[in-house]
Amino acid sequence: MKNDETKKKRKRRKVDVNRILTPIVMILFVIALLMYLNLHAMRYALSSEQMDVVRATVVEKTVDPFTMVIPMVDLSYTYNGQEYRDKKYFVLEPFFQLQAIEGSTLVVYVNKKAPNHFMIQTKFYKNWINWLLLLFLFVFVVVLVRRCRWALQNRRDKKEEKQKKRENQSENEQIKPVQRQPERVSTEQTAEWRAAKQIVAEEQKKDSLSAWHIERRESDEQ
User: Fold this and answer.
1) Is the entire prediction scored with pTM above 0.85?
2) What average pLDDT is seen over the chain?
């Protein structure tokens, strides 16, 4: 259990601004890709009242005259009794399971105010790249949420550590070291001790005097 807790704390400590910004950047990148792939559908959703749905016939499939690489499609359609014909790039449409076969038909969105302008209809769910990007988006959102939770937990842990340090400091200030006070000797004990000391000193003097008298007698007898 302790090892698991320490591992979690280590993971949480690794969370910084860069680790939070990384999934945010990836989320924005994925959203930008989704918007680019589904630009026609978004434009139609925002201005559906100004658009009419018409079926256009594929006249021929060509390439860009400048690069001679980018595929294009020549479409012809009739709107309000008048025939229109124009070329459009056909790069992303194959991912939506659309084919530019001569003589086949494609659904287009025609502008009511400018019938010579149109967009090829694309459906979101038919493009497998959209589903893959949605999966990546979900993963990055989960990563972002987890890292944000770790960052918040780190912040809470730091606050708790600061509070504990403050509490320990206050406790240390309150608890002062107990100093041993010297034992007080009563006046009676000191008087007895002085009296005993004087008696011992007097006895020592008597002994020294007696010893001096004895030595003197011995010297006189000789």
Assistant:
1) no
2) 82
Average pLDDT over residues 154-176: 80
As given in the structure block, the two tokens for residue 26 are 């990836």
Amino acid at 146: R
What length is written for the chain?
Answer: 222
* Interior/surface letters 3-33, b for 16+ CB within 10 angstroms, e for the rest: eeeeeeeeebeebeeeeeeebeebbeebeee
In angstroms, the Cα distances linking 116 to 27, 55, 76, 205 are 37, 14, 10, 143
Would you report the helix, strand and coil content of the chain in percent, each value rounded to 5?
60, 20, 20
* Of residues 98, 48, 50, the one with CA closest to residue 75: 98
User: Cβ of 62: how many Cβ atoms within 10 Å?
Assistant: 15
